Amino acid sequence: MKKPKKPDKVKLGHREYKIKYITNKEASKRQIYGEVDTNLQIIVVDQSLDKLNTSNTILHEVMHILAYNYQWNLPAKTEELIAETSVNGLMDCFAENPEILKYIYNSFKK
Question: Residue 46 gets which letter from DSSP?
Fold first, then answer.
């Protein structure tokens, strides 16, 4: 069975964000696992992360995009706290209850 490749884009509404993977050296230099630029519509992710942490990081950056798209207008620390805790909580839920994630995925099928 083929290993799924890392996603290279994420679409939200009418915008498509390119996902660019950067070296661990660059990520460490920037002190990030991931980052989003809403103006350039690019998400950068440390390429050395394992699958679980790559998924977590992409979802974390999606939360920042949602904050931007829906104009949460929160202080940066508050937005970061919401993104971090919400995504970590969802990832924990999906890990402990994989049938829920499967159900959600299948609910989009016609």
Answer: E
CB of 43 closer than 8 Å to CB of 34: yes
Residue 44: CB partners within 8 Å, gap ≥ 6?
19, 20, 21, 22, 27, 32, 34, 35, 36, 37
Q: Which two tokens stand for residue 14?
A: 């009418």
CB atoms within 10 A of CB 37: 13
Pairing of the two strands 34-37 and 42-46: antiparallel
89: phi then psi, degrees, rounded to nearest 5: -65, -45
pLDDT digits (tens, 9 = 90+) for 22-50: 999 999 999 999 999 999 999 999 999 99
Please state the length of the chain.
110
* pTM recorded for the entire structure: 0.92
Cα 100 to Cα 25: distance, rounded to the nearest angstrom: 36
Q: Are 19 and 45 in contact (CB under 8 A)?
A: yes
CA pair distance 98, 101, nearest whole angstrom: 5
Q: How many CA atoms lie within 13 A of 85 on its CB side?
A: 6
